[in-house]
Amino acid sequence: MSEHIEARGIVKTFSVRGSRAPVRAVNGVDIVIPRGRTLGLVGESGSGKSTVGRCLLRLLEPTEGTVRHGEHDVLAMKPETLRRHRARAAMVFQDPYESLNPRMRIRSVVEEPLMLHTDLEPSARRRRAAELMRLVRLEEFHLDRFPHELSGGQLQRIGIARALATDPEFLVLDEPTSSLDLSVRAGVLRLLKRLQRELGITFLFISHDLTTVAAMSDEVAVMYLGTVIEKGPAAEVLGNPQHPYSQALLSAALSVDPEGRRVRHVLEGETPSPVDLPPGCPLASRCPLVRNDCRLAVPPLFEVSEGHGAACVRVPEGTNVLPAVGPVPIVTAS
Ligand SMILES: Nc1ncnc2c1ncn2[C@@H]1O[C@H](COP(=O)(O)OP(=O)(O)OP(=O)(O)O)[C@@H](O)[C@H]1O
């Protein structure tokens, strides 16, 4: 299966007022997603998930790293090439109401990307808008409504229709169902699955909700403090987590193991500030299993099983080192 989205060594820092040191929001992340597949990106609030998603779309300029979309070097694009490239990749935001202009009719919301990134005539834009309504299972009359006249679930379908307007190959879905009632969540997730199947779109699915990620993802990457600390096939990472942070995240969410026993992996203490990152494993200051060598260097992703890696020195020695998410060559540790 061909790699579709491939980002290497992504670093993103933000300068903040009143602080001489920048916030290191993303600290050397690799992302590889094969065409038509879903990578779920999980981690607590502030771990850098949205910043990674925005860097992949170049809605933010990474401070370091490379981003490839198919054959295209996204970060090397000049403005006009980038404008046309924006038709190939789009983002669906968490809160559909917040992300839509309340004064724009839905038709303008849906047609806007066509105006910005394509040269379609008005009549072709209208036809495309009607087609998009059918695709997301809404009625054509919704195009003449304003955002406040639609329900949360309908608005998120509009957010999806807008993202699909230019027939993109890649979508970043940033917590696309977190603001929705449970009763409409499943419908939106089913819609996304169907669209992916029918249109062959590649997804980066960002969420802190592990149940949703489990249902949506082929592979999962777990982020902590700007770093991917575990990644691999979704069933492996979520069913057999090896990094103490992933174990804590999962036990907080599930609180029972596969045999039905209650398990608790509690992390004490505060997450360190991304302005002042510790030198070794980012979890060292909170990890119940910490050893001296954890504080020396950031551990690489040690291979737990095929394609499943965890950046923890306690993963058995003598294993391979996984350099990135997805089907990439595996380097044997010396
Ligand atoms: N524009 C910005 N200026 C300064 N700091 C920022 C900016 N954007 C993000 N950050 C910081 O970068 C870190 C990562 O933020 P990010 O939003 O990517 O995390 P996240 O995992 O997506 O969290 P959430 O789930 O809450 O959206 C946080 O410490 C955040 O405060």
Please, could you describe this protein's structure?
This protein has 334 residues and is an alpha/beta fold. It has helices at residues 49-56, 79-85, 96-99, 106-117, 122-135, 152-164, 182-199, 210-216, 234-239, 244-254; strands at residues 3-14, 23-34, 38-42, 64-69, 72-73, 89-92, 170-174, 202-206, 219-224, 227-233, 301-305, 308-310, 321-322. It has a domain at 235-322. The chain contains ten helices and 13 strands. The strands form two sheets. The chain has a nine-stranded mixed beta sheet with strand order 6-7-8-3-9-10-12-11-13, with helices on both faces. It has a four-stranded antiparallel beta sheet with strand order 2-1-4-5, covered by helices on one side. Strand 1 (3-14) and strand 2 form a beta hairpin. The longest helix is centred in the middle third of the chain and has 18 residues, at 182-199. The radius of gyration is 21 Å and the shape is globular.
What is the compact description of this entry?
It comes from Nocardioides deserti. The protein has 334 residues and is of the alpha/beta class. Helices cover 30% and strands 22% of the residues.
